[in-house]
Structure prediction request, 379 residues.
Amino acid sequence: MHPIPPPYLTRRGFIKTTGAAGLVAGMPMLAAPEARSESAPAQAVAEPAHSSSASPQPAADTLRALASKKGLLLGTAFCHEAFRNDPGYGGVLAREFNCLVAENSMKLCDIQPERGAFDFTVPDAMMTFAAAHDMQARAVPLVWHDALPPWAEGKTFPRQEALAILREHIFTVMKHFRGRICAWDVLNEGLSDSGPGLREEGPWFHSIGSNYVEEIYHLAHEADPQALLFYNDYAMDGMSDKADRCYLWLKELLARGVPIHGVGLQYHVKLEQHPDPADVTRNIRRLNDLGLSVHITELDVWLPAQSTAEHLHQQAAVYRGVIETALAARKCPVVMLWGFTDRYSWVPGTSGGTYDQALIFDSDYHPKPAYAAIAAALS
Ligand code: G3I
Prediction:
């Protein structure tokens, strides 16, 4: 049966116990250092070792310090190219956030580029950085229809072979990072966008059949019974048709004893098209009522490429609303942004230049109005 969520899955639960560290208080290897770090004064956070133009010691009013006081994990996607090449990047990252997630380097094409040959070089560097700066880490995704290596792209495998591939992948990756990941997105974007049922693209649905979902959650639970296992998707932050379908689907999976502990709401939104916070609250509440924790996993707020000061202020209000919604929810203890500086964002590329400036620092690392709005929400 689905285990009763432990108290550290709720923001209130970990405030009562060990501060922000309580999110992972049940995880053996992280409990001690995290209890030390996030309950310590913000000034105790060390500067990144690699950064030659390190930012000054974080003040008590950094987003990180404010979030930690509220018991919130406030995180960001980690761009390895920026970390490696841009001396300004790591300083802001460690100063402002208490959690990170690889934007790309833990996807199948990156971590298992050749079948059976795993490459942990880049995520290991990220985890070393996280440990050095007392940051938590999420992991995304173990199984996805996208970001496939050539050996899996466009392929269909015999059912048992596909299950063996996923078993090896899930066990190898989860064991490598065991005790260091506060939540795993086991499946990313598994639901169809266009109607009922599962998304059918990619090798896993076709090779294994529609019960591949329960197979991979059972595998992940077997690989690490302590791990928190999430389902992550987009366009289901508020009360959409997809959100309804997701809710009913998860309810059914839980009733069948599939070990799923939480839902990631990606929250990629455009300024002109973002959900009403009241709807997000309702959606989170019903997921919480199923016993699921909710994490906001990939927040960004897209502006028109030619944006104005007014756009920036409207964007700030959206960011503020998301933080307030998470803080007010029963179990929404994590908000991850999909990057923090407009210098490195997937938005201009994916929108063909139509949208930009989706994050909270501009391309020169100057805080935008959204930064102050998040700080206000956390104060
Ligand atoms: O690393 C190669 C590089 O060697 C090559 O020169 C370059 C040429 O285009 O491509 C680089 O890889 C790109 C990679 O980002 C790193 O920049 C891939 O082509 C590109 O497809 C990849 O896009 C990522 C996308 O997921 C697909 O994996 C985006 O950065 C990343 O932001 C995006 O993230 C997803 C989440 O995982 C799931 N939710 C939606 C979100 C946005 O699509």
Q: What stands out?
A: The pocket of G3I is lined by residues 103-104, 107, 146-147, 188, 266, 298, 346 (CB under 6 Å).
